[in-house]
Structure formats: C-alpha cells, structure tokens
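Standup notes
- DV: blocked on the single-chain target, sequence here:
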Amino acid sequence: MAADATTIARPYAVAAFERAVATDKLDLWSDMLALLAMIVRDPGLAGLIASPKLDRAQMGELFLEIGGGRLSDDGQNLVKLLVANQRLAVLPEIAAMFEERKAEHQSTIDVHVTSAFPLNPAQTQQLETALKQKLGRDVRISSERDPELIGGFRLRAGDMVIDGSVAAQLEKLANELGI
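- DV (later): unblocked, structure below
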C-alpha cells in the first residue's frame, strides 16, 4: 500500500508545491498540509474516513470545520478535491512529499542524529558546519538520545545514513567473528 499511496500522493504534492511557489506561500502550505496530515492520522478520524458513515459532502465539511481558519482558499479547495476523489488517506504522504520538494527548493536538508549521549550546542554546530560543507546545503539538525547505541551516533540525512555507533561496530565485529 505504501507504494500505491506514494503514487497517488505525488500529483497532489506536486500541484500543491507548484501553487505554493507561484503564490510565494511555502510556509503556509507546509503548515496547512501538516495540519491536514495530523487530522488524518488521528485514530478516531482515521476510522471515520475509512467508513461509509459520512458521505463526501459531510466529510468535506468535517475537515473544513476542523481546519477552521487555518486553511486558505487554496487549502480548502485541496480538501474538497481530495474528498471528491476519496484520497484523504494519502494526506500524510502528500505532506511528506511537499516537505521534500520544499527543502530541495530552499537548498536545505533535515538531518536527524541519534546519539548515545545528548549533543551539546558546540557539537551540534560543528556537525552542522561539516555537513553543510559536505552536502552543499543548509542543514537543520534534530537529535535524540538512544543509550542502546552505547557510544557514538547514527545520522540520517535524506537517503544517506552514517552509523558511527559503538553498537554497530560491535555488531560488525561479531559478524566477522561468526558469533
């Protein structure tokens, strides 16, 4: 289903991105799509979206009401289109694809670092500088702590993954030794 959802979501994400660029409202579209994706992910609403309890008009009204004043006219039109085509369930994929295009357009990349110990601001800055130089893009770093790594870190930037954790090195050694 994931590949199907991606295929279905792509034209909507592309259209939303093109509209956001044309109207110079990338951040507004980011916020709207994040909100709509959050609504779809809500466990109570997810069941309602999949059930035939509400017709399309009622579903559209529900989403527009939940969105309140946070949806522009273009955002409301997207909701209506997704409801009419029964595509509300792919909103999280649309939002994710939109964010990828936005980051590429703005020459930024989100980097997630998982480390055994919390990164201090100096380490974060040093890592950001090195990655900016290597990737040629502005870097936004988010981090989390995972004590199971024992030491070191695991970095994910788009498709690139660098695993410099002690746990990964021990696992590699165990594989080489046949343990």
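- Follow-up: The chain has two domains: 2-103, 108-177.
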